[in-house]
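Mods, move this if it's the wrong board.
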Amino acid sequence: MSESTILYVDIDDEEVECNIQYRVDNNGIGPYEYWGQTCYDKGEDYIEIEDIHPIFTNESEEDKIRINSYIKDNFKEISSNLIDNWEYPELPERDFDE
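Not the wrong board. C-alpha cells:
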C-alpha cells in the first residue's frame, strides 16, 4: 500500500518541497517449517520510495525543468539519502501467533 508525505529535498544546494510517495514493505518469509519444527520469520520493515514530485509555487519554467531533471537523474541517490534520514514513526506491533 502506497503512502505519501511532504519532505524537503536538497537539490542543487537548495531545499525543494516534495511530495514523496513510498511504501513500507517487509522482508520476512512468514511461517515455515524446518526439520519438523514450525517457525515464523517476522522479518524487518523497510521503506521503499516509489516517486518524488516537487511542489512548485513561483518557480520559473527553467527552474522547474532543472529540478525535475535533477530528480530524474539522481533518483537513487536522493531516495537513499531520504531513507537514511527517515523519521518514520514506530510501526505497530503485529501479532504473529494468528
